[in-house]
Specification:
Structural class: alpha+beta
Mean pLDDT: 81
Radius of gyration: 40 Å
Largest sheet: 5 strands, mixed
Length: about 475
C-alpha cells in the first residue's frame, strides 16, 4: 500500500510542484494588493515583504517543474543557468521572509532591534558556506543542493520562526482591537509558519554533515511514506487561506475609520449648526440689547426727564427670551417655538431693530394664508433676515432699510435693501465672514440661493428665493434620483 502511494505521488510530482508554486504566488499577489501602509496595525507597513516572499517563492518552486521540460530544447548549459536562477529566486524569497519576520517582531519588541542585523549576517554566512561546500561539489546538482540546504537552514528556518512569533504578537493586538475572528486567522497563520519552518527549513536535501545526514528529504519520505513536497504544498494551501483571511483586518479597520469619520462629521455639523443658531439668534439678541442699553444711557445722560421704563421693560423681555433660547440649546431642543406667523414675527423684528438703531424701516409683505413656509423654513428665514439687519446696524451706516417679501405661485422672494456704505463682496468672502457664510447656509437650507449686490458707496441688496415646502421636498427627491 505504501509503495503504491509513493508510486502515485511520484507520478503526480509535477502537479504537486505546480500547486505548491501556485498557492504561494497567489498568496503573494493577495498580500501585495491588500497591504495598507497607512494602517494602525504595527505589521501593516511590512506586509509587502510577505507579499514579495510569496510571489518570488512561487516562481522559484515552479523551477523543478518547468526547468526539466526545457532540458531537451536548450541544452545542458542553458539548463544549468536556469537552475542558478531557481536557486537565486529561492534565496531571495527566504530573505524577504526573514526581513518580514524581523521587522514585525521588532515593531512589537523595539528592544530587540538588533535583530535587523540578523538577515544580512545570515546572507553573509550563507555565501561563505555555499562557497566552501560548493567548491567540493562534483556536479551542478550537488552544487545546487548545497546552496538550497544552507539557504533553508540559515534563512528559511529562522525567518519562518520569527514570522510565526511576529504574527502571534499581531494576533494579540488584533484581538484587543475587537476582531477575535481575524485574530484566530493570524494565530493559525503563525502555527502554519512553524510547520513551514520544519517542512521547508529543516527538511533539506541529504548531505554528508549533521543534521542534513539524519533529517533530510529522503529520510522524511521514508518515515512518512510521502515526499516532503506534499506537506509543503498542503502547508502552503492552508497558509495562503489563513493569510488571505486575516487580511480582512484591513477592510474592518477601514470600516471603523469610516464610521469614526462619519461620527466626527456628524458632530462637526451639529457643532456648526449650534454655532450658527447662537450667532444668528442669541448673539443678535444680545447685540440688540446692547443697543437698547446704550440708548437708555444716552437718555439718562442727555435727557434725564425722558422716561426709560419702556426701554428697560423691553430689555427685560428680550433678555428673558434669550435665556430661554440658551436653555433650549443646552437641552438640545433647538430654539424653535410656536410661530405667530411670518409677517407678525418680521414686524416685531423690524420694530425692535428700528427702536434700537434709529434706522428707518419700510416693510412690504402681503402674506398668503393659503401658502405658508414650513416651521423650519420660517425659522431659517427669520434668522437670515436678523443676520442681515445686524450687518446693516454694525457696518452699513445706513439711514433707511427696506424689506420686501413677494409671494408667488412657486415660492416667495425676500429682498432686503439698505442705503448704507456698501462693501466689496469678494473681499468679504475672502475674509471668511461668518455672517455671510451663515446667511448662505440658511439660504441653502431654505432650498434657495443667496444673492448679494453691493459695492462701496452704493448700499447693499440681499435677495433669496424660497420654494414652498412641498416643492422643496419634491426637488430634493428628484435630485437624489
Amino acid at each position: 500500500m505504501a509503495e503504491a502511494l509513493r508510486a502515485f505521488i511520484a507520478q503526480q510530482e509535477p502537479l504537486v510542484y505546480f500547486v505548491y508554486g501556485l498557492v504561494y504566488f497567489l498568496m503573494g499577489v493577495a498580500v501585495l494588493l491588500q497591504s495598507r501602509g497607512c494602517s494602525a496595525l504595527k505589521s501593516a507597513r511590512h506586509h509587502y515583504l510577505l507579499g514579495l516572499f510569496g510571489l518570488v517563492h512561487g516562481l522559484a518552486d515552479w523551477g523543478p517543474l518547468f526547468i526539466p521540460m526545457q532540458a531537451g530544447i536548450y541544452g545542458p548549459r542553458s539548463t544549468s543557468g536556469m537552475w542558478y536562477v531557481y536557486l537565486g529566486l529561492l534565496v531571495v524569497s527566504f530573505i524577504f521572509l526573514y526581513y518580514f519576520g524581523v521587522n514585525i517582531l521588532v515593531a512589537f519588541y523595539p528592544r530587540h532591534r538588533w535583530l535587523r542585523l540578523a538577515p544580512a549576517a545570515a546572507v553573509f554566512l550563507w555565501v561563505v558556506l555555499f562557497w566552501f561546500y560548493g567548491g567540493q561539489a562534483h556536479s551542478p546538482q550537488e552544487w545546487r543542493y548545497y546552496g538550497s540546504t544552507w539557504a533553508r537552514y540559515l534563512l528559511a528556518l529562522p525567518g519562518s520562526a520569527l514570522t510565526a512569533a511576529g504574527l502571534s504578537a499581531q494576533a494579540r493586538e488584533v484581538r484587543q482591537m475587537g476582531f477575535p475572528g481575524v485574530a484566530g486567522h493570524l494565530a493559525r497563520a503563525a502555527l502554519l509558519f512553524v510547520c513551514y519552518a520544519f517542512f521547508a527549513g529543516a527538511a533539506v536535501p541529504a548531505q554528508a554533515f549533521f543534521p542534513a545526514n539524519w533529517m533530510n528529504q529522503d529520510s522524511f519520505a521514508i518515515w512518512t511514506g510521502l515526499p516532503v513536497q506534499v506537506f509543503r504544498a498542503l502547508t502552503g494551501i492552508t497558509l495562503a487561506g489563513a493569510v488571505i483571511r486575516y487580511l480582512e483586518v484591513f477592510s474592518l479597520e477601514i470600516r471603523l475609520r469610516l464610521e469614526a469619520a462619519e461620527r466626527n462629521q456628524a458632530a462637526l455639523q451639529e457643532r456648526e449648526r449650534i454655532a450658527r443658531d447662537i450667532h444668528d439668534g442669541v448673539l443678535q439678541s444680545l447685540y440688540s440689547l446692547r443697543l437698547r442699553v446704550e440708548h437708555c444711557l444716552y437718555l439718562l445722560r442727555d435727557h434725564p426727564a425722558h422716561p426709560v421704563g419702556e426701554h428697560l421693560r423691553y430689555c427685560m423681555e428680550e433678555l428673558t427670551g434669550t435665556i430661554g433660547e440658551i436653555r433650549c440649546f443646552i437641552g438640545g431642543a433647538g430654539a424653535v417655538v410656536a410661530s405667530p406667523g411670518l409677517s407678525r414675527r418680521l414686524e416685531q423684528l423690524l420694530d425692535d431693530f428700528q427702536a434700537s438703531t434709529g434706522i428707518k424701516v419700510e416693510f412690504f409683505c402681503q402674506e398668503d394664508e393659503g401658502r405658508r413656509l414650513s416651521p423650519a423654513q420660517e425659522e431659517h428665514l427669520v434668522y437670515l433676515i436678523r443676520e442681515a439687519l445686524s450687518n446693516v446696524a454694525r457696518h452699513a451706516g445706513a439711514s433707511r432699510v427696506e424689506l420686501k417679501i413677494t409671494f408667488r405661485d412657486d415660492g416667495l422672494t425676500v429682498a432686503l435693501k439698505d442705503d448704507g456704505c456698501g462693501f466689496s463682496i469678494p473681499e468679504q468672502r475672502d475674509k471668511g465672514a461668518r455672517g455671510l457664510r451663515n446667511m448662505a447656509v440658511r439660504a441653502e437650507a431654505l432650498g434657495g440661493e443667496l444673492r448679494l449686490q453691493s459695492r462701496p458707496g452704493a448700499g447693499t441688496l440681499v435677495e433669496v428665493e424660497i420654494p414652498w415646502a412641498g416643492r422643496q421636498a419634491a426637488a430634493g427627491s428628484a435630485g437624489r434620483k
